[in-house]
Amino acid sequence: MGDVSSDFAAEYITALAEHLKEPREAALVQAYELGRKALSSGLGVLDTAKVHQEALATLLMRATALPEAAQMAKEAQAFFAETLSPFEMTHRGFRDAYAALQELNKTLEHRAGELAAANRELQNEITERKQAENSLRQLSGRLLELQDEERRRMARELHDTTGQTLAALAVNLSLVDGSTGKLEGRASKALGDAMELVEECSREIRTFSYLLHPPMLDELGLPAALRWYVDGFSKRSEIHVDLEIPAKGIRLPRDLELTIFRIVQESLANVHRHSGSATAQVCLAIESGHAALEIKDKGRGIGEGEMDLAGSGVSTLGVGIAGMRERVRQLGGRLEIRSSKKGTTVKAILPVEATS
Description:
The protein is an alpha+beta fold. It is 72% helix and 11% strand. It has a five-stranded mixed sheet, covered by helices on one side. The longest helix is centred in the middle third of the chain and has 95 residues, at 85-179. It is rod-shaped, with a radius of gyration of 50 Å.
């Protein structure tokens, strides 16, 4: 810094002497350039002022009279002011930059406040949505429970009331047939037809009652109920179904058994209504901690558009797939449906808390 200061002092006194000898605009321009040089060399305002003071003191010693010295001091003041111009401009630039930075900080703080408010609002919306989803899930679960209870009640009503009424009617018709002797003509045929109709209605009522809610599901367990349903389905639909299930002694929680039965019921119904497959396969495996159910067919498959609608719960296939998804979700499991031109596979993985 010493060498820089010395060189600058020498250049400064030379330029100031020329300005005092003959004040000109060019000398003031040179003073401005000296100020820029001092600034770029790392000299401060006080360093520059010291250089100016020493240079002026040296030059004033050359004055021959007081008026001349006063005039020199006045001209030197203008020269020094021009030398300090770069310092002032730099200071003003720093000040403006600092003011702009302060304004930017205020803007950022304001934006941060807005973002925080928006984030709080978003979190509130997420919370409200989760609450709505939980409420909807609980409502869906309750609707499924009510549906199952209603099916169980209707099955019991059909079996205990309508079925018993038809049984009594069949007994009465048998009594009529036995007590009136041999009827002739149309009367005998009508009585025979009536007895056949009563028997057919009894079978249909019994089948319909069991489809609504098979009593053996509660009494004998899932394997027996699945064997009964698959056997009846094969006879009614003429679709051959291979059934692979565990031994008879295994019992699962009631909700889990009902869910598995309904998935098999709905999946086979879809095979019959939509796939055109002549065969199907149902496989149930009880493994450590979960039950794996898989239903396959070799039909025409489900179109992508229909699969999208089925996943959203609004399906041309009916509400069965949406119902299956909801039942599985209520039990904490997952449902996968894969479909192609070679067939459709429905797979459900359900947690099992305990088996016996």
